[in-house]
Amino acid sequence: MTTFPVPAEDLQRIDAWLGADWEHLRGARILITGGTGFIGIWLISSILAADASHRLDLRISVLTRSQARFRERVPELADHPHLAVIEGDVRDAVMGCADTTHVIHAAAEASAQLNAERPLEMIDTIVQGTRRMLEFACACSVRRFLFVSSGAVYGRQPPGLSHITEDFRGGPDPLDAMAAYAEAKRLAEQMCAAVARTRSLPVLIARCWAFVGPWLPLDTHFAAGNLIRDGLQGGPLVIRGDGTTERSYLYAADLAAWLCRILLRATPVRPYNVGSGRGLSIAALAEVVAGCSPAVGSGERPRIDIRGMRQPGAHIDRYVPDVTRARTELDLEVWTPLPEAVRMTIAWYRARAKVASPHSEQGR
């Protein structure tokens, strides 16, 4: 029986949510970039699981900078008979067209460290990488090209705006030292639109927001990952700010289903926000994580340590999408409630720690 690096029950739910949509991939030959990352692992697993369930006779090629790292990270995928691993840089990789029918371009993760320390590399990877993949898609005459973009393209959310729609005309400050990722994604979207217009390539655009689930990094700038890490270690759950910052979180299985449906059914050159429209403060998120975390010491849940102070008159930093378009046009829903999403994420990391270190429950 084939195993995958994500929970089997999640793959079953994704399969059920998409239903007849999978028929669009019968006989497909799909190229996926960014296959070693959080989104890539979920997409590859979901599509290959559907292939097994529906006998779709599809094949996936994944472009990664390191075959060895891909194999080490997800050996279940590396050995799958319907997956070919191509080593190369997305900016200049040499690939044969073969019979590629779909491209999912998900390379270039939202790395705050790379954005801060090597912004030109960040820009080059996103912009040149997207141009290279668009050229490849045109040469292969692919049926659909999905560009995995980001909600960062909207820039800072205005204080009086509760949710951002796809029609919002704001943008990041081009002189902001931390705007390299956002500006590069904006330019990449512009290139997608230009190629779609001039070369009739069906380009789909998914603007991704914030997520929680297995494979979410626990040691980077993602608040949900950091809080889950703190909870797994017994606490405290540390919040560096004042806890009022608002975000929303979509579970990884929901994310995979949304991206697949956008690939298969969305209107070309019409962006779709991908995320949850239910905003909550980081302090409220910490309460959810604490309630789902393993008990410590006397059996009590981990404590929450809010280290910042609320400044009088300060606006709330908000980053929450409006997902009405995805709901009404593509019948997409936030199927997994946040407490359930957090519980499943914590359970997956605890099980993974036990496998890695059977003599220590936390794997430390």
Question: Could you characterize what this model shows?
Answer:
The chain is α/β, with parallel strands linked by helices. It has a single domain (8-215, 251-276, 313-336), classed as Rossmann fold. Helices cover 41% and strands 14% of the residues. It has helices spanning 8-18, 38-54, 67-73, 75-78, 112-117, 119-140, 180-199, 223-232, 252-265, 282-292, 324-330, 338-356; strands spanning 29-33, 59-64, 83-87, 102-105, 144-150, 203-208, 211-212, 237-239, 246-247, 250-251, 272-274, 280-281, 304-306, 318-319. The chain has a seven-stranded parallel beta sheet with strand order 3-2-1-4-5-6-11, with helices on both faces. Strands 12-9-14 form a three-stranded mixed beta sheet. The chain has a two-stranded parallel sheet with strand order 7-10. It is globular.
Name some characteristics of this structure.
single chain, 364 residues, alpha/beta, Rossmann fold, 3-stranded mixed β-sheet, 12 helices
Largest sheet: 7 strands, parallel
Rg over CA atoms, rounded to whole Å, is 20 Å
Terminal Cα span: 31 Å
Q: Which segments are poorly predicted (pLDDT under 50) over 5 or more consecutive residues?
A: 357-364
Average predicted confidence as pLDDT:
92
Strand order of the largest sheet: 3-2-1-4-5-6-11
CATH homologous superfamily designation: NAD(P)-binding Rossmann-like Domain
The appropriate CATH architecture is 3-Layer(aba) Sandwich
* Protein structure class: alpha/beta
Helix content: 40-55%
How many domains comprise the coordinates?
1
Q: What amount of the residues lies in strands?
A: 5-15%
Number of strands: 14
Order of helices and strands: HEHEHHEEHHEHEEHEEEHEEHEEHH
Number of helices: 12
